[in-house]
Amino acid sequence: MSRPELQAPAEFYYGDTEAKKYTQNTRNQQIQASMTYRALELLNLPTSSPAFLLDIGCGSGLSGEILDDEGYIWTGLDIAPSMLEVALEREVDGDLFLQDIGQGLGFRPGSFDGAISISVLQWLLTAPTSHHTSSPPFRLKKFFTSLHSALKNPSRAVLQFYPSDDDQIQLVTGIARQAGFGGGVVVDYPNSNKARKVFLCLFVGGGMSGGPSSDSQQVPQGLQGDGDELEEEGKVKFEKRRVSTRDRNANGKRKSQKVIDRDWILKKKELYRKRGKESVPRDSKFTGRKRKPTF
Amino acid sequence: MVRLITHNILACHVKGCTSNNFPLQLQGVQIELREAEFNPEFLKTFLPKIEWKALVDTAKEARDTSLPLEQPEMLDDEFLKNLHHVLLEIHIEEGTMICPNCKHNYPISNGIPNMLLAEHEVG
Lengths: 295, 123
Ligand SMILES: C[S@@+](CC[C@H](N)C(=O)[O-])C[C@H]1O[C@@H](n2cnc3c(N)ncnc32)[C@H](O)[C@@H]1O
What we know:
Chain B: Interacts with TRM9. The complex is a heterodimer of chains A (295) and B (123). Chain A is an alpha/beta fold and 295 residues long.
């Protein structure tokens, strides 16, 4: 199968069926979760005050739920209505916007304390139409310039994505630099085909670590190894971080882990009907059944 | 769910619309109130980013007049509670946001604003 971003525009690729499949696949949930935690680690936010974050290409809220759990207040943008619909159903706390990030963002300067984006940027590397505003460089420029302005100084944006080759990495980082960002690329597990992950780690101003010393500008190190221990390690790390953030966010909100099962879905549907939402799917014997992973 | 915290940082992003493009005016809105956990530390760090007049005016449109016209210097508990309510508990569910400058309409449906532009509006 060719890469999703080459098959159809995102808002069609992530239609109703794919949006549900994507969100319910437990393997996918794990991967997106571990990349979200890694992105938060690379954001390096001060632990003292709760931050206001932007989730770029938030999709169905797999990354957003973690932001909720960690006590962040956030806003999410996505171009696919079906993905946003699933995010609504999953009751994430962030505000959701239907937006094409390649058209630029409309936020007042300095609004966000940081931004993350998980598995999205590769979608900006293909042209949705032949109009000149559709070329990848044009769209990347609109996106990075408006993102740079929406972030406060100093702060960071961490964007995990799937480049198809090094030229794409060059293109993306080049345009990010022109837009005023410092920073660069962090590659985790560079020697593993399977576990290799590319994070664009961008700084506004000094990128907000420490003082004005020169190493505050330094791009963090990628994780080494072949990532085989990824899952195990990831789990252990979550637990550790969970515990420490728990007391950190003593005033913040705290939610129990969401378990998506039949009861949970029925409860949510009931809630939506009560709120007068139309088009809640009817309950059937298939509701919340276990599905085989499809890839 | 557009909370007023997010409405307060929104500006119009239509091509060439760069001044007087904020705050987006609300029209025909349906409001829902939803409780959120009170977090005074967050409010204090967010306070400097707020466009105060825009927030007070928008809150009024949502029939909330609990905020003082000037941002107070003393952040007592009562003020923070009111601010918390306005920023994080008032949700715009339906309606339209209109740019005060170019009059572009951003419709909100099911709590989700449609910020998509036509090709000629991008640039
Ligand atoms: C692989 S999903 C990732 C979703 C979410 N971040 C997660 O971790 O589960 C990619 C998302 O990028 C969104 N996307 C693609 N192109 C976009 C664009 N131009 N503007 C906004 N979102 C876009 C898609 O709609 C899809 O929801």
